[in-house]
Write a structure and sequence with these properties.
The complex is a heterodimer of chains A (about 475) and B (about 450).
Chain A lengths: L4 E7 L3 H12 L4 E5 L5 H6 L1 H18 L14 H25 L3 E4 L2 E4 L6 E4 L2 E10 L3 E3 L14 E2 L1 H4 L8 E5 L3 H12 L3 E5 L11 H13 L3 E3 L3 E7 L2 E7 L4 E6 L1 E4 L3 E3 L6 H4 L3 E2 L2 E2 L12 E3 L10 H15 L14 E3 L4 E6 L2 H6 L4 E7 L4 H6 L4 E8 L5 E8 L2 H13 L4 H6 L9 H10 L7
Parallel strand pairs in A: 1-2, 1-6, 2-3, 6-19, 8-15, 9-10, 9-15, 10-11
Antiparallel strand pairs in A: 4-5, 5-6, 7-16, 12-13, 13-14, 17-18, 20-21, 21-24, 22-23, 23-24
Helix pairs in contact in A: 1-9, 3-4, 3-6
Chain B lengths: L2 E4 L9 E7 L6 E2 L4 E6 L4 E5 L4 E6 L5 E5 L3 E6 L11 H7 L17 H12 L6 H10 L17 H26 L14 H7 L14 H16 L2 E9 L1 H13 L8 H15 L5 E4 L2 E4 L5 E3 L1 E3 L2 E3 L2 E2 L7 H16 L5 H4 L4 E5 L18 E15 L2 E15 L5 H16 L7
Parallel strand pairs in B: 12-16, 16-17
Antiparallel strand pairs in B: 1-8, 2-4, 2-7, 3-6, 4-5, 6-8, 9-18, 10-11, 12-15, 13-14, 17-18
Helix pairs in contact in B: 3-4, 8-9, 8-11
Chain lengths: ~475, ~450
């Protein structure tokens, strides 16, 4: 006889769900997690992790091609099948790791697709024929790639890819169109460009990576263009599958161009997974496919919570995990601090990498701050030069009146590993003073973080 | 009684000066604030003002006298109604007892100007868990961090707490303005309720009719004193220890010292109390201490603060390292500090800090009293009047001059046994004053 009564049931085992399950169990709740597919969700199986594996192959390949710059020689070749296999192996390894974590933390794993039905204390959870009950049900069902079938923007199984197909390519396309220049689009553009595809990126907004600081966007555009990626902004795309490829109509205000591509990758955003789980019957509020919640992830239905991509932006794995922790701690009667969306860092693992936290310069000014802006280029940093990566910039934005670090923006090699320094600084509410007083090790890329602060106060040393 | 006008110290390093010009002549009537003379130092020429009113009866130095030592009398003033014949006893009286005007009238507390209050406040901030940004905001907005409860980890005050506090303050202004209006309409409730800001309403709530009193606005000194004393009485778990000291020998020794010492050295009982306290602190270094949340600070020197009454408040100038200073030096410094304190010319460094305080109300006939600790000091000594009292000595009734002192201790730092040990040392120095000459 299997147990069907729990304190907490979590639906979805992505970085939101499985982290919440572990914390839930730590807090003494009898916890179950329901997953329709592989443990770890999109992030681990079809998102963050496998793409990082692919991009690592691209980076090594790219370095090999530049071996002579380092006094080495190499005749690089690649095997696409092996590259993809490596990426899959890593995803599988980590998924197995989650299974182990669930077992270690006494979290019951239930395989299947869950749906909810109204009940007294909290909704009941149905998986197949079985009904499970819990005092608290947490939805962590995530999101999936957005499609626009009217414009032909939907995967066709061969020529038009969503992120999922794009990370298990059967062939290295000669001509590739990437629609959407957010993090996902730019990472694939970067990957395929590294292995020789002729990549075109089309973006509706007036710049690529539109969520990033404008100056960083501009530098990214310059860097990608230099690598041969063609960037078309202010343009919409409609697709039509033709023989051996896709015909794309790219139009902006004044003109329209039709071109044919071997493959197209759709990276035009996400939609929340809110269908077929019975939310309509419960009266859960949904706003444009995302569930409406309060600062502790409570929905308007008693005993029902939602975290991660299925709720409000930013749609990032680390936001989902943190939100889940806040949610379960609140359930446990603790007093967690609600998440401040502006304090969530974002990273893009293209080459060069991009990372940021807090306000962009424009956002800060729009929010009414008088700002002090500091900048430091990679070319002024010894370690960056020694690495052969002199391309990039670190930018800081301070509130002139209070010294509060409003935002930090970076482009360049390994910046995704640097941004946490500023994130900690923001969380601890340091001012420029403490950052200036901090000793950064030499020679490291992190010295640029120091210099970018000093620069905001006209005290740069090395540039 | 004749009043001595002393050579002022116009800078902390000034030891002597030139009396370049008299602006009054003998027989002139002067009022407080009138210019008396021009004094020249190596740095500048400055005018000195009369503090008391009366008649100048004697100018002790001619114009152009150089190397006049600081604190040396330069002129004699007689108060109205005093006969010039009292000058005949002039020398005697100065040797017998300290001029009543120059004895420190005392109570306890420290005065800071409003700027230095900020300095103190920022020193205190370090004890309050707070983010650097919160501290910066508090400073910018002139908010006292200790007033704010922190919502961060372990009660850390963070940005949103300051913002919420300011918002709260702003929203409170509106109701209190409305109340003010209600009050002027004479329809204010007489019911005793929660006290609010605003003096008039405060008293009305307590049942005192508006119009039955005059409201004198608080000056900065009073604001600082009230805050510091309130903090101390709320935060410091203090207790008093009282002991009687026989001071006949001390008075005898003082008289002898003043007779034998140079013309212008005039040691007061207070000077001897300062020295005895400093030496006792040296004997009990663990009592020369301050409480901090991080540990007990054991001070390396005995910096003795002495409460001096001034117009509209009081101030505690400090004899630094009094344990290393002889009686004549203590006396000279104290005279200078006290006179400049009354002129409100002390520098913050001269009255901020210290490790121990003395408050003396003996000259006002107070037998014994207890004081509020002047943080961060660990103890304060309250000195009562020395007068003749009957005592029992070896089974027989006897007479002795007894001075009762009360030591108030911060129990977090000094416990009963330690306080008592300190008092034993102090009593020994007072009763065998020759030992403090060593």
């Amino acid at each position: 006889m299997s147990d069907t009564n729990f304190d907490v049931i979590i639906i979805g085992s992505g970085p939101g769900g499985y982290v919440t399950a572990i914390r839930s169990s730590q807090l003494g709740f009898k916890t179950a997690i329901i997953e329709k597919d592989s443990l770890g969700g999109v992030c681990l199986n079809w998102g963050c992790i496998p793409t990082k594996a692919l991009l690592r192959s691209a980076e090594v390949y790219s370095n090999m091609k530049h071996a002579e710059d380092y006094g080495l020689s190499a005749s690089p070749e690649f095997n696409l099948k092996s590259i993809v296999q490596r990426s899959r192996n890593i995803a599988n390894q980590l998924s197995a790791g989650i299974k182990h974590l669930m077992k270690k933390n006494n979290v019951t794993v239930i395989n299947g697709f869950a749906s909810l039905q109204p009940a007294k204390e909290a909704p009941e959870v149905r998986v197949g024929e079985k009904i499970y009950k819990a005092k608290h049900v947490i939805l962590a069902t995530g999101a999936r790639a957005r499609t626009i079938p009217q414009a032909g923007l939907e995967p066709d199984g061969k020529y038009i890819w969503s992120a999922k197909e794009a990370m298990i390519p059967d062939t290295m396309p000669n001509k590739l169109l990437v629609i959407g220049s957010g993090a996902i689009g730019m990472e694939f553009a970067s990957f395929y460009n590294a292995f020789g595809s002729k990549v075109t990126v089309v973006e509706m907004e007036d710049r690529i990576l539109p969520a990033e600081d404008e100056e960083i966007s501009a530098l990214a555009k310059k860097a990608f263009s230099k690598r041969g990626i063609k960037i078309i902004t202010n343009s919409k795309a409609t697709l039509k599958v033709v023989e051996n490829g896709v015909k794309a109509v790219l139009e902006n205000i004044s003109e329209s161009n039709t071109k044919t591509y071997d493959r197209v990758i759709l990276a035009i955003g996400i939609v929340g997974n809110t269908e077929n789980i019975g939310l309509e019957n419960l009266g859960v509020k949904i706003d444009r496919t995302h569930i409406v919640v309060n600062e502790y992830s409570q929905t308007c239905v008693d005993g029902l919570y939602a975290i991660g991509d299925v709720t409000t932006p930013p749609w990032l794995a680390h936001k989902a995990s943190h939100e889940g922790i806040i949610c379960i701690e609140k359930i446990a009667g603790r007093n967690p601090e609600p998440l401040n969306p502006i304090s969530i860092p974002g990273c893009t693992y293209c080459h060069p990498q991009i990372a940021s936290v807090g306000h962009t310069e424009k956002q800060a000014i729009k929010a009414g701050y008088r700002v002090k802006v500091g900048k430091f280029p990679f070319v002024g940093n010894g370690k960056a030069i020694a690495l052969g990566e002199p391309e990039g910039l670190i930018k800081t934005i301070f509130n002139e009146e209070t010294g509060e670090l409003l935002g930090a923006h970076m482009i360049g090699t390994e910046v995704t590993e640097l941004i946490q320094g500023y994130t900690i600084a923001q969380k601890l509410e340091t001012t420029e003073h403490e950052l200036m007083e901090t000793v950064f090790p030499h020679p490291t890329l992190s010295e640029m973080m120091h210099e970018a602060v000093l620069n905001a106060y006209n005290r740069t040393i090395h540039f | 009684m004749p009043i001595e006008i002393l050579m002022p110290a116009l800078s902390p390093t000034m030891e002597e000066g030139t009396l370049s010009k008299w602006l009054v002549k003998e027989g002139d009537q002067v009022n407080s604030g009138d210019l008396l003379a021009e004094i020249e130092t190596d740095k500048a020429t400055m005018e000195i003002e009369a503090v008391e009113e009366g008649t100048i009866v004697k100018l002790l130095f001619p114009e152009g006298s150089t190397n006049v030592k600081v604190n040396r009398p330069i002129a004699i003033l007689l108060e109205d109604g005093e006969d010039i014949s009292s000058l005949n006893n002039y020398k005697d009286s100065t040797n017998q007892a300290p001029n009543s005007k120059s004895v420190e009238k005392t109570m306890e507390a420290t005065i800071n100007e409003i700027d230095t209050q900020k300095e103190k406040a920022s020193g205190k901030l370090e004890k309050i868990k707070s983010s650097p940004l919160a501290r910066r905001l508090a400073k910018n907005l002139n908010v006292d961090l200790s007033q704010i409860s922190g919502s961060g980890p372990n009660g850390r005050v963070i940005k949103i707490d300051i913002e919420a506090y300011i918002k709260d303050l702003e929203s409170n202004i509106i109701p209190s303005q409305t109340n003010q209006q209600v009050f002027s309409d004479n329809s204010a409730s007489k019911e005793i309720g929660a006290l609010r800001y605003g003096g008039a309403e405060h008293l009305t709530k307590l049942g005192i009719e508006p119009g039955s009193y005059d409201l004198v606005p608080l000056n900065n000194i009073q604001k600082v004193i009230s805050k510091r004393l309130l903090d101390s009485s709320q935060n410091v778990p203090s207790f008093p220890l009282t002991i009687d000291c026989e001071i006949d020998e001390l008075l005898r020794l003082r008289k002898e010292l003043n007779q034998q010492a140079g013309e212008f050295v005039k040691i007061s009982v207070n000077d001897m109390l300062i020295r005895a306290s400093a030496l006792s602190l040296k004997h009990c270094p663990e009592a020369n201490a301050s409480y901090t949340p991080d540990g007990i600070a054991i001070h390396k020197h005995a910096d003795v603060a002495v409460a001096v009454s001034i117009e509209s408040g009081l101030i505690t100038p400090i004899i630094r390292q009094a344990d290393n200073k002889g009686l004549s030096q203590i006396s000279t410094e104290m005279k200078d500090l006290a006179s400049r304190a009354r002129e409100r010319k002390l520098k913050p460094t001269e009255y901020q800090g210290g490790t121990f305080s003395i408050s003396n109300l003996g000259m006002m006939g107070i037998k014994e009293f207890g004081s509020i600790i002047n943080e961060p000091h660990g103890m304060i000594l309250s000195v009562g009047e020395g007068n003749q009292r009957p005592i029992v000595r070896e089974g027989a009734l006897d007479l002795a001059t007894i001075m009762t002192v009360t030591l108030t201790c911060d129990h977090r730092v000094i416990d009963g046994a330690l306080g008592a040990k300190w008092l034993q040392h102090f009593k020994r120095y007072i009763e065998k004053p020759i030992t403090m000459m060593l």
